[in-house]
Design a protein that fits this description.
Layout (H helix, E strand, L loop, with lengths): L1 H7 L12 H21 L4 H6 L3 H5 L13 H23 L6 E2 L10 H13 L4 E5 L4 H15 L4 E5 L6 H14 L7 E3 L7 H11 L5 E4 L6 H9 L5 E2 L8 H14 L13 H16 L6 E2 L34 H7 L10 H8 L12
Parallel strand pairs: 1-7, 2-3, 3-4, 4-5, 5-6
The chain binds magnesium ion.
GO molecular function, one term: hydro-lyase activity
GO biological process, one term: carbohydrate catabolic process
Cofactor: Mg(2+)
């Protein structure tokens, strides 16, 4: 698998955009499909396929090119061997669906009224959620009010997170967050997510340093295309949390290398799970990280939408954990009926008002203002 990863990114086509952009998305799609097939052939959920590997077998799945200055295959092997001794205990926790605690973002989407946020918050705390993420950047007054509302509802033991989807310049991020956090010292978010451009490693480091005095960390990673950027973020001590995306790196292979890098720097991984099918994929990744790589429980986003489109939908337990996947494969099979509905241009969706509006948009949604 490591060789396959290397060869998929090394042909002449790399001159289009090496390990990034549309090339990397295509590599991701093919590698993930291979992992899915491999797990199905072995009749195991993907996380278990990886968890059942010996450290040597797992290391062979990774292309270490460009990261050996920080992590060599030999060092990775040692790290994995150390985790082996207690792996069976974590394996049992995974089988009991006690491996991956869930966090909720549904309360924080832009566009919700205060009353809706209060209502969603009550529902979420009743379900056992303790972590809450809110979009910010709406203006100091609005943000202070909404964050205050959530902090008040969840108390000191609740964990608040904030996300601004790359909206700010580096110094604006520092000024905005400092002012917000100074105005109400009880807000204390765990982190601000994607405060600036995803590629700006040193910018993230500067923001992290400035916000430390307010007890707020920095998180990013959902738009990063390669292990190299993660390596640099960790080297530069630019982040408190990293959030790799299951569909943006070179398949499970590269995710494994990022997990190992994060474990080496003792930075938790919260895979990015905000999108259709993302919770399904990420519940495998977080389980692998806990059972095999870091040995530490982290949290994973649970967004309650579009699971019904999948053959093996993600679920949460009554005590706020992700249900560990049991169906063979990578939980990425979409139901046949969804293809009949959405396949362009003959699917039934494209005859609806919304479908026609989208199909007739000459910009296909590409051009416009940032709305979230
Ligand atoms: Mg985000």
């Amino acid at each position: 698998m490591g060789q396959t990863q290397r060869k998929m990114g090394s042909g002449q086509i790399r001159f289009m955009a090496p390990e990034r952009g549309v090339n990397q998305l295509a590599v991701n799609a093919i590698l993930n499909a291979l992992w899915d097939l491999w797990a199905k052939v072995e009749r195991k959920p993907l996380w278990q396929l990886v968890a059942d590997m010996s450290p040597k077998e797992l290391v062979r799945c990774i292309d270490f090119r460009y990261i050996t200055d920080v992590l060599t295959p030999e060092q990775a092997l040692e790290m994995l061997k150390q985790q082996q001794t207690t792996k069976h205990e974590r394996m049992q926790l995974a089988k009991d669906s006690k491996a991956v605690p869930a966090y909720n973002t549904s309360v924080g989407w832009l566009g919700h009224s205060d009353d809706t946020v209060r209502k969603l918050l009550r529902e979420a705390t009743d379900q056992g959620f303790k972590h809450f993420k809110l979009k910010v950047g709406l203006g100091q007054d609005v943000d202070r009010k909404r964050l205050g509302l959530v902090r008040e509802a969840v108390g000191d033991e609740g964990v608040l997170m904030t996300d601004v989807n790359q909206l700010w310049d580096v110094d604006i991020a520092i000024e905005y967050m400092s002012e917000l956090l100074r105005s109400n010292p009880h807000l204390k978010p765990w982190f601000i997510e994607e405060p600036t451009a995803p590629d700006d490693v040193l910018g993230h480091a500067k923001i992290r340093k400035a916000l430390k005095q307010h007890g707020c960390g920095v998180a990013t990673g959902e738009h990063m295309n390669t292990r190299v950027l993660f390596k640099q973020l960790l080297q530069a001590e630019a982040v408190d949390v990293i959030q790799p995306d299951a569909c943006r790196l070179a398949g499970v292979n590269e995710l494994l290398s990022v997990m190992l890098l994060a474990a080496k720097f003792d930075v938790p991984i919260l895979p990015h799970a905000g999108g259709a099918g993302m919770v399904e994929l990420c519940s495998h990744l977080s389980t692998i990280d806990f059972v095999v790589v870091s040995g530490k429980k982290s949290v994973l986003e649970y967004t309650d939408h579009l699971h019904e489109a999948f053959e093996a939908p993600a679920k949460i337990t009554s005590d706020g954990y992700h249900e560990t996947p049991t169906t063979p494969g990578y939980s990425c099979d979409v139901k046949e009926a969804e293809f009949e509905k959405y396949e362009f241009p003959d699917g039934s969706f494209w005859k609806t008002d919304q479908g026609l509006k989208m199909a007739n948009d000459p910009w296909r949604g590409c051009y416009g203002e940032q709305t979230s």
